[in-house]
Here is the input.
Amino acid sequence: MLEKLKESKAAAADYMADGITHVIKSFKKRAPGSEGEREAQEYMKSELEKYSDSTALEEFKLNPGSFYGWIYFTVTAGIISLAVYFFAPLIALALLIVALIPMVSQFVLYRQVFDPLFKEATSCNVTAIKKPAGAVKRRIIFCGHADAANEWPINYYLGGKAFSFTFVVLMLGILYLTSIYIAALAIDGIAAKMPVLGTTTIMGLAGLAFLPFFIALYFFSNKKVVVDGANDNLTACYLSIALLKYLADNGITPENTEVGVLITGSEEAGLRGAKAWAAAHKDEYRDVPTFFVAYDTIADLDCLYINNKDLNGLVPTDKDVNALLMEASDNTAAGATFNKVTVGSTDSAAFTQAGLKSACITGADHSLKPYYHTRRDSYELINKEALSKVFELSAEAIRLVDSGKYDSASVKAVTK
Here is the structure.
């Protein structure tokens, strides 16, 4: 019967496009922890109630400003360090090291080290479960996040190449400043006076070339503009919901596989919803083999990726879930390939870090598209073909899981 689910892909794509459009037009902007995010979550919960056996909305606390809040401290301390360098390179080096701590912890590792310094808000996660016909022997849970990002002005006004160039120069600037601070200490000594026109002074003056790029980082994110987030990431929400809808509409109930949907809140604030959900539920979802599939930005079939690493390329995704998704892709000619989330992250990373079996599917070019985290990401850019293909792939994944083929944790990862 599950073969019939794949035949619903065209109708499902229309349903998804209509649902995404409705959310964008009907509710307020969906910043992490905002009223608009909550309204959208409650609406999607009401949709899921029609197609599932149980639903739950669970609140959690977060500090949404913390994820990008490091920028102001890091950039300011970095600029001060450059000025101090000409008088006290040791203090400059210390300032730079201190400046990098929040950047690495909050942005690179997605930790919550400095969260208490920022204003608290309330967000929520929505979970829906469809029971199988028989005993629960396994489950698969599909995931998307309901919130939307603040706009990235550099990408909106100057484009992805300018954004990437700025980011690369910033990283080079940090490496350069670290190097000259250490070199100055080696050349002139800790207490030595820096020569007026010496080598170390010239190195410092050269470092001023990076100053405009550091200042540009102050404008990394525009707090006044929250994007519509049609592709990132209402596509993921409605892909997940559509799977339950068309199981119900076609009278299909998997034999021994529980099918779930998880709509997280505040992913754009550093995976806070997925982290909260995993902390609360990780133990209860280890009773049977359980597979988490996180979607993110399903927009471009030419860039349909099953990612074997997540969170800035630091967190490996589960080899068994990757194998499952690749087999489903091959069986449906979806054309997915393996790749890595080398910059940024998806909710999958939070599940993996909690010890759950998870992987992520993305459908976006890693070189930033004009719509990515900009106001252009609205319903006019929905790609029904991409949604249709990923729906079909996901339906096949449900069939494969229900067959019991992936019950064993010893499944070998495929390569492609």
User: Anything to note?
Assistant: Confidence is low (pLDDT under 50) at residues 410-416. The chain has 14 helices and eleven strands. The first strand starts at residue 54 and ends at 62. The two ends are 30 Å apart (CA to CA).
